[in-house]
Specification:
Distance between the termini: 71 Å
Number of domains: 2
CATH topology of the largest domain: Immunoglobulin-like
Largest sheet: 5 strands, mixed
CATH class of the largest domain: Mainly Beta
Strand order of the largest sheet: 2-1-6-12-11
CATH superfamily of the largest domain: Cupredoxins -  blue copper proteins
Order of helices and strands: HEEEEEEEEEEEE
Number of strands: 12
Helix content: 10-25%
Strand content: 35-45%
Oligomer: single chain
Radius of gyration: 19 Å
Mean pLDDT: 76
């Protein structure tokens, strides 16, 4: 009988802990702001949190910070024809990035050629809590 009581109490504590975790993480997601990183030929512009560089003359490397329910920057601009490598700096969890329009998905990084123009949504493919659906950004490919 004692084991049953301990199991019930432990289950209640676990459920309360999980609910508290989701509650406090949702509160921090309401303060999200948009930031942008752009790649221009050989020069780069970056937001305060993101960075970019050329690993060789053909690949543009963009670093994005990922934490519960947000990417920083959450908008990336590249030129059509750029070979792009997006590297994630996972700050609190193994998030990931998925860009369905370019058929890429990864945990640490993704690589692709920006072969079409437009605005394409990227998102976290790893369920990371109750604000997971809001963990998105935009890739803008310009001529």
């Amino acid at each position: 009988m004692k084991k049953l009581i301990v199991a019930v109490v432990l289950s209640i504590v676990i459920v309360i802990s999980i609910l508290g975790f989701f509650y406090f993480n949702n509160r921090s997601s309401s303060n999200l702001s948009e930031s942008t990183i752009s790649i221009k030929d050989q020069n780069t512009e970056s937001s305060t949190m993101g960075s970019s560089s050329d690993t060789n003359s053909n690949t543009k490397v963009i670093t994005i910070d990922a934490k519960k329910f947000e990417f920083t920057p959450n908008m990336i601009k590249v030129k059509k024809g750029d070979n792009v490598k997006i590297v994630l700096n996972n700050e609190d969890f193994a998030h990931g990035i998925s860009i369905p329009d370019f058929n890429v998905k990864g945990i640490d990084s993704v690589e692709f050629t920006a072969d079409k123009t437009g605005t394409f949504q990227f998102r976290c493919p790893t369920i990371c809590g109750s604000g997971h659906r809001e963990m998105t950004g935009n890739l803008v490919v310009e001529e």
